[in-house]
Amino acid sequence: MDILRYVAFSTDPLGGNPAGVVLDAAGLDEATMAATAAEIGYSETAFTVARPDGSLDIRYFSPLAEVPFCGHATIATAVAHAQRHGAGDLLLHTQAGPVPVTTSVRPDGTVTATLVSVAPRTEEIGDADLAELLAALRWNASDLDPALPPRAAYAGAWHPVIAAAKRGRLADLDYDMAALGALMERRGWTTIALVHRASDTVFHARDPFPPGGVVEDPATGAAAAAFGGYLRELRLIALPEVLTIHQGEDMGRPSVLGVRVPADPSSGIEVTGTAVRIG
Hints:
The protein is of the alpha+beta class. Helix content is about 25%, strand content about 35%.
């Protein structure tokens, strides 16, 4: 098995979110993929199998569980595929649905990838679930930004969006991993998108991922896509709009995610980032 290792959403190997990539997973069963992801230990490892038309089937495994869609591993896979087969358009068949990706090469040789998520949507979070979620985070209702109401947001996987009124609240992350993980497993939530709005188009984010056995993700493309859909559905941004999300800074792995939110309410959300190979 040829296992590639990349950092996504950064050009610095010490930043971004590491992902494992297996470009030829033909013949691997689910147990082998799960065991491989656990051994690698990154928040996600992607496994692809080529179809006759050149598109790819793709599955994503964390150290503890499979997820239907993962943004940073998608970016890493697209960059790895482009470096091996050439840049251009690629279609990925995820468990959440088809995800087109386009790669291009900058003059300095850096490969950039843009994915288009499945159509996003949001749901209300019940009062009891919200209270349990805040208690697990060790947050109070007064910590929340009333301009960005709590919602569960989807763009391939579900991510509750919880907005902090102050950047300092976001920087001080000390949550009950067991309690939060149990709630997330019951509700089918993949990560918690903790955000702070720095300006109309710039946000800071942190994403706990206890169901995957990961305390925190340094860059979460799936949550970024879901957040873009949340902002559009709740009419919290001008449309169309391009957003910048800074993530990983508080854990020493700075990442930058570009998010384009089209005006069409039925369209997917575009997430753009770079990736560099680390092994």
